Description:
Helix content: 25-40%
Structural class: alpha+beta
Order of helices and strands: HHHEEEHEHEEHHEHEEE
Distance between the termini: 40 Å
Mean pLDDT: 88
Number of strands: 10
Low-confidence stretches: none
Number of helices: 8
Amino acid sequence: MEPTQHIPGEPVRSGIPEHGRVPKYYAVKARIAELIDELGEGGLLPTERDLALRYEVARETVRQALRELLLEGRLRRHGRGTVVAGPKLEQPLSLASYTEGVRRQGRRPGRTLIGLDTLPCPPALAPGIGAEAGEPVWHLERVLLADDERVGLESTYIRVARVPHLGSEFDPDSSFYGYLRERLGISFGDADEKLETVLATPREALLIGTPPALPMLLIHRFSRDQDGRPLERVRSLYRGDRFSFTTHLSPG
């Protein structure tokens, strides 16, 4: 591909500066990206040593290129080797549940329960979930799975008064939104969301199984029910190398 070729959706001029001086690692990264396309999902990448010999560069140059491709989700570690990763999961920015979003892409959603506890509602949380400061609230924390791969961490806060039997009735591996809708007749009306990029804490990285330096996508959601009453707060942390988010925009 010519450096000046412009493919819509890709970096302009393939990311090469106008002065034409390309960092050596970036040139190697581009060549490894071509190799990734040839190998296809699950393909085993040659070793750093073999790549350095193939492209006639130092191993540290190859290592830097691989680090970026790993962070971008093009590659993933598998045992002692590196393989081509599958496409990122596309999660809609909507009131659909995580379960529904993953199933639409032909993947199998799952969750691992970390904890389901009650705590006195902190004053800062109370307005967002329609609670009084100090009243009991549930805290539901689960690791998010897609085909048994750990891809995120989710914390949900909701008043015990709204879902008094959550601890005994709810299957932690199932959709919380499905439980609210089917067992309690609670539907979602609207929500406010904030999306930002963060690094995981050491605890979060351990639970998700990622290095602490891996960028994460963090979503804060305050949801209201069909009657406009505050319902829940959710803090969802998604792996930046395995997720992208989509939405539909219309004139405001």
